[in-house]
Every structure is written in C-alpha cells, then in structure tokens.
C-alpha cells in the first residue's frame, strides 16, 4: 500500500470536469485506488464516489493505492491534482 496527501487548489475542486479527468487517469492503472477525505474513503475510479466527497478548493485529501503499479498511480494522480489538471486537457 502506498499513499500521499495533496491539497486540491483548482477553482472548482474535484467536481464535474476535473473529477472526470481524475477518474480517467485512475483507470489507467491496475492498482486499487481510493481517495480518503476525513473519515470517508471512496473508490477513485468511481465518478459517483469521487463526486460524493464534495471536495472543494483547499481540501486536503489522501490518495491511496494497493497493487503492482501503486506508486506510479498515486504519484501520477498527485501530479495531476498539483498541476490543477492542466496536463489533462
């Protein structure tokens, strides 16, 4: 298991379009991937799960992965969020 924390800085948080980019990237990996926010943990490959967290700008989340490509998956998703989703467009 591998995890990293990241603060969501883009204007709309992880909602609608950014969430779609996030999920598309998450689905490129074999590892199971989750987003942890406070006490809640959701599947990072599920649009409804990600949207249900209501992640807004300034929210600190933890991305957790478990599987053969777990480090690559977490690092890629953290980079995507840190870039404000610029490299997804």
UniProtKB/TrEMBL annotation:
Location(s) in or outside the cell: Cytoplasm
tRNA processing in keyword set: no
GO CC entries: cytoplasm
Key words of the record: Cytoplasm, Phosphotransferase system, Sugar transport, Transport
Coarse class of the protein's main subcellular location: cytoplasm
HPr domain residues: 1-88
One of the GO BP terms on file: phosphoenolpyruvate-dependent sugar phosphotransferase system
Known function: General (non sugar-specific) component of the phosphoenolpyruvate-dependent sugar phosphotransferase system (sugar PTS). This major carbohydrate active-transport system catalyzes the phosphorylation of incoming sugar substrates concomitantly with their translocation across the cell membrane. The phosphoryl group from phosphoenolpyruvate (PEP) is transferred to the phosphoryl carrier protein HPr by enzyme I. Phospho-HPr then transfers it to the PTS EIIA domain.
Record protein name field: Phosphocarrier protein HPr
Organism of origin: Qingrenia yutianensis
């Amino acid at each position: 298991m591998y995890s990293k924390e990241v603060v969501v800085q883009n204007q709309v948080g992880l909602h609608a379009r950014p969430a779609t980019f996030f999920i598309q990237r998450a689905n490129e990996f074999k590892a199971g991937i989750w987003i942890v926010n406070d006490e809640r943990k959701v599947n990072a490959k599920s649009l409804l799960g990600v949207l249900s967290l209501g992640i807004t700008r300034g929210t600190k989340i933890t991305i957790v992965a478990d599987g053969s490509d777990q480090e690559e998956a977490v690092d890629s998703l953290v980079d995507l969020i840190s870039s404000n989703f610029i490299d997804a467009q």
